[in-house]
Structures are given as structure tokens and as C-alpha cells.
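Hey Z.,

So I finally got round to the 3-hydroxybutanoyl-coenzyme A thing we talked about over coffee. Here's the setup:
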Amino acid sequence: EEAQKLAAFEARVGEGEFVEAKDWMPEHYRKTLVRQISQHAHSEIVGMLPEGNWVTRAPTLKRKAILMAKIQDEGGHGLYLYSAAETLGTSRDQMLEALHSGKAKYSSIFNYPTLNWADIGVIGWLVDGAAIMNQVPLCRCSYAPYARAMIRICREESFHQRQGYESLLVMMQKGTPEQQALVQDAVNRWWWPSLMMFGPHDKDSPNSEQSMRWGIKRISNDDLRQKFVDATIPQAEVLGVTVPDPDLKWNAEREHYDFGAIDWDEFWRVVGGDGPCNRERLATRVKAWDEGAWVREAALAHAKKQATKAQA
Ligand code: 3HC
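And the result:
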């Protein structure tokens, strides 16, 4: 009975069909989606912190307004994705408890410090650029609520990437030599961590085989990383910056860029909680959660009063 259901399910997603919340699904499919969508949501929420540092330090009112809009978008993406995960039967409290206790992951990229204003432009260009690469295929994820959430998120990510790149163009084309050096230094610090956003090599990725078979992952970690490098190097050339990889070179045969080895010790150290800012990021999240408890209690009390009034 169960085996028949699984076979029918695999045939359905194998033909590119979509799964809705009320459809039958294998427990492992549900579990791996809760894992991925909740960690994606955590990434969006924690991702607000490195940029939040620079709202009060933005160089102009225009840049401040753009940065605030971007950070608000990220918060919205997080809430969108928590809602998508809730359709699978998990709760907001369970997901947030997993984040605050250190059990759940979020993208390693947000554990690096934002040292100056150039970092904000480089995050938009490289981090949101990598996020778009990884999120566009998710618009065709076999789990329909997740795919639908991704359509709006990808549109907003494109604005994030464009605004970051444009602010770097201004610094490179109209900035002082010191400002140009700030941009190059930021690229040197963010390039490799951005490549790590795509996850381990396919051969070292425990979830990929199952996720690709079930139509959750449409393009592999390594293929997406390659697409990102191929698309980004020409943008770096227009900007007038280089990436910190002496092994980078165009391979006319492959029609792709060859690039150097990623430091997987750094990757697993940061994913494991021992990156430059992991403790600070988590402490900030837990503090916000604790300090916000009275707001949640008041909202619940108000909702209860409303419900009682409605029944009276
Ligand atoms: N940081 C932290 N953990 C990572 C990671 C990273 N950069 N890359 C991989 N991992 C984790 C995986 O979560 C998995 O651990 P788990 O089983 O405990 O969850 C383990 O490393 C092995 O990796 P796999 O490749 O086997 O795992 P996946 O098949 O889940 O692939 C992924 C990893 C490509 C990140 C995939 O989960 C995914 O596509 N997630 C949705 C997109 C997402 O979360 N992107 C984060 C970008 S940040 C963002 O979107 C904010 C934007 O506004 C800037």
C-alpha cells in the first residue's frame, strides 16, 4: 500500500507535477522540505542583521531609503517562507526554537562582518546575486507553496542585486582611490563565502540525490555555482575589480570559467557555528525574541478578547 503510494508519488513529481499541501506525500519529502524552507527563512531573517548595521551609517538619504527597503523585503521573505513551511505541519514556534537553540542552520554567508559601506554594495551584488541563481530554479520546486513564494521573492531579489551593483559602479566610477580600494577589499572578503552559499560539492552533498529525484532541487550545487561564476566575472570586469582567485581563467573548451578550490574547512567551521559572527548573530536573534515576548502576549490576549466578544 505504502510502496504503491510512493511509486505513484515519484511518478507524479517525475513528470514535473506539483504537490499541494493537502496531497499525500512521503514523510521524508515533508521533512526535507520543512528542513530546507525553514532554514531558508532563517537565512532571510538573520540576513537582515549584517545590513542593519549600516542603515544609520548610509552615505546619503537615498542610500538609506534603498537599504531600509531591502532589509524590509528580507524580513518579508522570511515571514513568507515560514508560512510556506507551516503548510507542512510545523509551527512558527518550533522553527524559531530550532534557530535560537542552534539546532537549525541558516546560510553561512551571514556570519561574516560588514566592515564598511562597500560591503553593503558587495552583499547586494554577490550575495543577492548568488541567492537569485539558487532561488530561480526553486520557482519550479515540486512543492507548490514553496514555488509560489519564490516567484515574488525572486522579483525582489533582482532589485536587491541591481541596487548593490549600481552603488558599487558609483564608487568605482566616481569615487576616490580610497573608495575604489574599499570596493576591491570587500570583493576580496566576500567572494569565496558567496561561492559557499551554493553548498558542498555534489559528491559531498547528502541531500542532493533525493532532492533532485523529488524535484526539490532542479539544478545541482556545483552547476549553480558554475553559472554564478560565469555570470559574475564579466560584471566584475565592467566594475573594474578582480576576484581573489589566481586560478580563475576562461576555459574555451568547456565554455565556462575554471576556478580555484573552495576552503571546505572554513565552510564547515562556519556552518558548524564557529564563523566570525555566528554567536553575535544568534545572540541578537534571541535577544529580539525575548524582548518581543510582551508584544506577542499582548497580541494573543487582544485576539482572545476579540474572539470572546465575537461569541458574546
Ligand atoms: N550555509 C549553511 N548551511 C549550508 C550551506 C550554507 N551555505 N550550504 C549547505 N548547507 C547545509 C545544508 O543545509 C545541509 O545541512 P542540513 O541537512 O542539516 O540542512 C548540508 O549543508 C549539506 O548540504 P546539501 O547540499 O546536502 O543540502 P541541500 O540539498 O539542502 O542544499 C542549499 C543546500 C543549496 C542551501 C539548499 O538547502 C537550498 O537551495 N536552500 C534554499 C535556498 C537558501 O536557503 N538559500 C540561502 C541563501 S540566503 C538568502 O536567500 C537570503 C537572500 O535574501 C540574500
